Amino acid sequence: MVIDKGTFYGCSNYQKTKCNFTLSKQILGKTVTQKNIKKLLTDGSTDVIEGFQSKEKTFNAKLYWDGEENKLKFDIAGQPVNQGG
């Protein structure tokens, strides 16, 4: 079970299971909600999250887990929105 650990989400029985899964709550300036973390873990991706900020632009995307690379990735929803324009 994944629980809120303050600045990140992690396994609830870490001491017993040695589960090393963690996921930061803040990703490119956006807070990932517990609802979206549950959706990610059960469905494989989150809802579209608006307002991620890279160096040059703001964009909307779903987050999904790449099982082959064991990392979180972005599924960009539509065209990125330019920052400040």
Topology at a glance:
Elements: E1 2-4, E2 8-11, H1 14-17, E3 22-24, E4 26-27, E5 30-31, H2 34-43, E6 49-53, E7 57-66, E8 71-76, E9 81-82
Antiparallel strand pairs: 1-2, 2-3, 4-5, 6-7, 7-8, 7-9
Which descriptors would you attach to this protein?
85 residues, alpha+beta, globular, DNA topoisomerase III
Question: What would you say this structure looks like, in words?
Answer:
The chain is of the alpha+beta class. The protein has a domain of 57 residues. The protein is built from 2 helices and 9 strands, in the order ββαβββαββββ. The strands form 3 sheets. Strands 6, 7, 8 and 9 form a 4-stranded antiparallel sheet that branches. Strands 1-2-3 form a 3-stranded antiparallel sheet, with helices on one face. β1 and β2 form a beta hairpin. The chain is globular, with a radius of gyration of 14 Å. The C terminus is likely disordered.
Question: Can I get a quick summary?
Answer:
With 85 residues, this protein is an alpha+beta fold. It contains two helices and nine strands. Helices cover 16% and strands 44% of the residues.
Q: The biggest beta sheet, please? A: 4 strands, antiparallel
Number-wise, the strands total: 9
The helix fraction, in percent, is: 10-25%
Radius of gyration: 14 Å
Series of secondary-structure elements, N-terminal to C-terminal: EEHEEEHEEEE
Q: Give the overall shape, derived from the CA principal axes.
A: globular
Total count of helical runs of at least 4 residues: 2
* Residue-averaged pLDDT: 83
Oligomeric assembly: single chain
Point out poorly predicted stretches: 79-85
Q: Strand portion, in percent?
A: 35-45%
Structural class: alpha+beta
Q: N- to C-terminal separation?
A: 42 Å
GO molecular function: isomerase activity
Protein name: DNA topoisomerase III
Pfam families: Toprim_Crpt
Organism: Mesobacillus boroniphilus JCM 21738
